[in-house]
Amino acid sequence: MKQILVLPGDGIGPEIMAEAVKVLNLANDKYSLDFELSFDDLGGAAIDRYGVPLADETLARARAADAILLGAVGGPKWDSIDPAIRPERGLLKIRSQLGLFGNLRPALLYPQLAEASSLKPEIVAGLDILIVRELTGGIYFGQPRESKVLENGERMAYDTLPYSESEIRRIAKVGFDMARVRGKKLCSVDKANVLASSQLWRAVVEEVAKDYPDVELSHMYVDNAAMQLVRAPKQFDVMVTDNMFGDILSDEASMLTGSIGMLPSASLDADNKGMYEPCHGSAPDIAGQGIANPLATILSVSMMLRYSFGQVAAADAIEKAVSLVLDQGLRTGDIWSEGKTKVGTSAMGDAVVEAL
Amino acid sequence: MKQILVLPGDGIGPEIMAEAVKVLNLANDKYSLDFELSFDDLGGAAIDRYGVPLADETLARARAADAILLGAVGGPKWDSIDPAIRPERGLLKIRSQLGLFGNLRPALLYPQLAEASSLKPEIVAGLDILIVRELTGGIYFGQPRESKVLENGERMAYDTLPYSESEIRRIAKVGFDMARVRGKKLCSVDKANVLASSQLWRAVVEEVAKDYPDVELSHMYVDNAAMQLVRAPKQFDVMVTDNMFGDILSDEASMLTGSIGMLPSASLDADNKGMYEPCHGSAPDIAGQGIANPLATILSVSMMLRYSFGQVAAADAIEKAVSLVLDQGLRTGDIWSEGKTKVGTSAMGDAVVEAL
Ligand SMILES: CC(C)[C@H](C(=O)O)[C@@H](O)C(=O)O
Ligand SMILES: CC(C)[C@H](C(=O)O)[C@@H](O)C(=O)O
User: Taking the CB of residue A82, how many other CB atoms lie within 10 A of it?
Assistant: First the structure.
């Protein structure tokens, strides 16, 4: 028996999660996965229920679970509360407390949705990049960080960007391991011409590379990487980078596909226990309308089956089912184009269940 | 008499600067600008000549000058030397020592070059963004920064990202001032949901906004900004952001145009004294071949006339001359397309001189 903790979160979170759960339940039966689902709150929903964005009991449940499925967190309702207990804090805390340092963010262009990209077809056709982002270190969690008033009465604030050898080594390994089973090309992104932490990053990545002679390693400055993603994104296979650069570059890369509503993500610990969530946010503007795209969350279920449970057949089947509903011309509003059939969140979920 | 210090730099720097100087000399005569030019080295060229990427005497000359025109710095020749005296260090030092905190990086799509963009024409047609980047603070210069060995034998390194109220205030003002004379829209980019420095950034920008009721201010997280630049870049007029985010976003934005060989930049101090340089790098791979595009450097001359000397007529005339040579179908290799006339660096410079 495997325990899956489901955290629907805020905004469109509950709607898209309902569809993902339908798919997960079917896969559970069909492939005898022996999963048991339990539900709890994270983010704004947790603030409303527990007064904090991640309650201790939720964290305990997350620790005990074998995998976590997350919708999305945040929304205007909680924008004006104390920054220390905003919805995002719950997300950052669960990542950090569970040691989910390995964030996998694929930027994959579905051929059926090629025209949704703002880039020219020839630039993005067949795009398939995997961004490996360090998720529990760097400037997101570095201490000290402070906001203070100087003697002259002026305010100032600072953050710290630290990386240790072991933090860099373990994420570099994830990058190389992923590259090894994909296109065998790893691009490590840093700002080694300016940052001390990046100089160490580059040195350690070079050391790890010795164990992966079959993977072609390159280094790129982050500003150039942001540029190359726009100019010629297909030059990349796997990119590995730090927490902040990964935040920026993975969002940029996902938008190259034009359909961020399709992209799942995984955040893994050292034992491949993971939290799985769509790359998109909680989209409060369309919450409750039944029009959100559930496919990224459904594909997050597939990633969970693949990475945390090694259930390759079930994972493949879900991906194929998603591809099939796209072939059938079904589209939620965010990926709809002339001539296609516009459907709502639950109709899309049902179609995937049907295809599966 | 105004003193202009010319620093051709490395790689294609000397070639493109030769053309910019032709144009500057002509403008000098034609508009009786009373400029006196002197020349020195920065970056790799300075390492070869002085042993350091920015010699004290060069810095003194830069201080004494009324404006500085820079080519580009860096190249593989100096890649293996001590990081503390690499070519880029000269660039960072001159920015910091001269207090050039206000970096203006336009991302402008020339209608004649619309097809060079990797984005669809309807997404980028008419694109005209100005990125205002803080250039002398933040994580580029923050102390402490260190690389060390921990007691357990592990290496670690860290950088510090500090911002003071006054640093934020003065760059925010540049952003608002620019927005006021352009589309009256300013988007401030930060990561206030994670960073202490960004929270102060956002608070101070809000304060400065009170003096600019005619400018519409918005805030955006840096990850979303990286995404929106790909999705719908024309939503932006002026963007203001910190040193590191500005490095990344300005390169991303410039690449949206597809012709980074066309984009100039300005780095200004509190009195609008400035250093002007192309956005592109030193392109060592094509150095010495006479094929580099000199237009970004020529347009940097125009920016210099506009921002440091208020010579609007001369600045406009240079921009018009550049547009004219594009209309004539002249193109260097980087912006060439079928049916256009391919020309080299000096032929392009001559054409601009002719048009002027
Ligand atoms: C919500 C925010 C704190 C988070 C991050 O910056 O990591 C988000 O942007 C993400 O990428 O998952
Ligand atoms: C060369 C490098 C240090 C520099 C920077 O990061 O500022 C460059 O990328 C730039 O944007 O001018």
Answer: 8
